[in-house]
Design brief:
This protein is mainly beta. 8% of the residues lie in helices and 38% in strands. The strands form 5 sheets. Strands 1-11-10-9-6-7 form a 6-stranded antiparallel β-sheet, with no helix packed on it. A 6-stranded antiparallel β-sheet has the order 19-18-17-16-13-20, with no helix packed on it. Strands 3-2-4-5-8 form a 5-stranded mixed β-sheet, with no helix packed on it. Strand 9 and strand 10 form a beta hairpin. It is elongated, with a radius of gyration of 21 Å. The chain starts with a helix and ends in an 11-residue tail after the last strand. The C terminus is likely disordered.
């Protein structure tokens, strides 16, 4: 399989992941919890109003105490937590990056869980039958560009190095950075700071295409771990962040040192959509 065929196969996988029942297109709500009781359901008098017709007017109540969240369902509600019917109040795990995965609540076409972003504690809601998911017409891409595949020199950071990363909510977090890469593109020498993503390197970057032919905030690029001090950057695999597809994501913004002074017309394109705070 040649590079063009490999790229196309990868893009098919990316499309499938986006369209999946638990993909970004299925996001249907993001609700921040106040301290104490927070009722939820499809009724207009609920504190957290879920999409009309997806659940009863009063499905239950979330109880927040600091970072601790419990759920209590209304009588007769056949909601599940991690696939199991529960009664009374139950404490939920959240997605703060600690051990384990967040507790997953399901009801009909809905799935939701607790998430933590900075000082905020909220509920992320997915609906596998969402209108956004049904109406999506597909990602759009630049043609494969062999010149967008570049060899870079990896410069490791001392253990424990972090860089500040700010998200669209304005929260800034010290994020572990294993190092930076140095490379030449279109005759210009430049560098990008990486953050760790499992066994891979993650780059959040901007270039002169953002807000013109690509998504305004930034694009993401994942690459494998360096082979010695060398890493290959294939910008044909640069993708739009989740915020390009839903208003309910909390994407990180590209740090200033990852703003490139030239255009990289490769990877995923973007021809419209919303622009959350800090995107342009």
């Amino acid at each position: 399989m040649g590079p063009v065929e490999e790229l196309q196969a990868w893009r098919v996988q990316m499309e499938a992941a986006l369209r999946a029942e638990d993909g970004w297109l299925a996001l249907a709500g993001l609700f921040w919890l106040r301290e104490g009781a927070n009722t939820f359901g499809s009724g207009p008098d609920a504190d957290l109003v879920f999409p009309d017709g997806t659940c009863p007017a009063h499905l239950g109540t979330f109880h927040r105490s600091g970072g601790n969240v419990q759920v209590e369902f209304a009588a007769g509600a056949d909601a599940l937590v991690d696939g199991v019917a529960v009664s009374g109040r139950i404490t939920l795990r959240h997605d703060d990056g600690g051990p384990g995965t967040p507790s997953m609540i399901s009801y009909g076409s809905l799935g939701f869980h607790v998430l933590v972003r900075g000082p905020r504690v909220g509920i992320r809601l997915r609906d596998r039958d969402s209108a956004v998911r049904r109406a999506f017409t597909g990602r759009i891409w630049f043609d494969h560009d062999p010149e967008a595949v570049v060899a870079a020199r990896f410069e490791p950071n001392p253990p424990g190095t972090t860089i500040p990363i700010t998200n669209v909510l304005g929260d800034t977090e010290a994020t572990p950075s294993p190092g930076r890469v140095h490379f030449t593109y279109a005759g210009q020498a430049c560098s990008l700071d990486a953050v760790a993503s499992g066994e891979e390197l993650f780059f959040n970057f901007k270039d002169r295409t953002n807000g013109v032919s690509t998504y305004g905030a930034s694009r993401f690029l994942m690459v494998g771990r360096p082979d010695g001090d060398t890493v290959t950057l294939d910008f044909n695999r640069a993708v739009s962040p989740p915020c390009a597809f839903t208003v309910h994501a909390t994407c990180p913004l590209a740090p200033l040192q990852n703003h490139l002074p030239f255009a990289i017309a490769a990877g995923e394109r973007h021809d419209g959509g919303h622009h959350p705070a800090g995107a342009d």
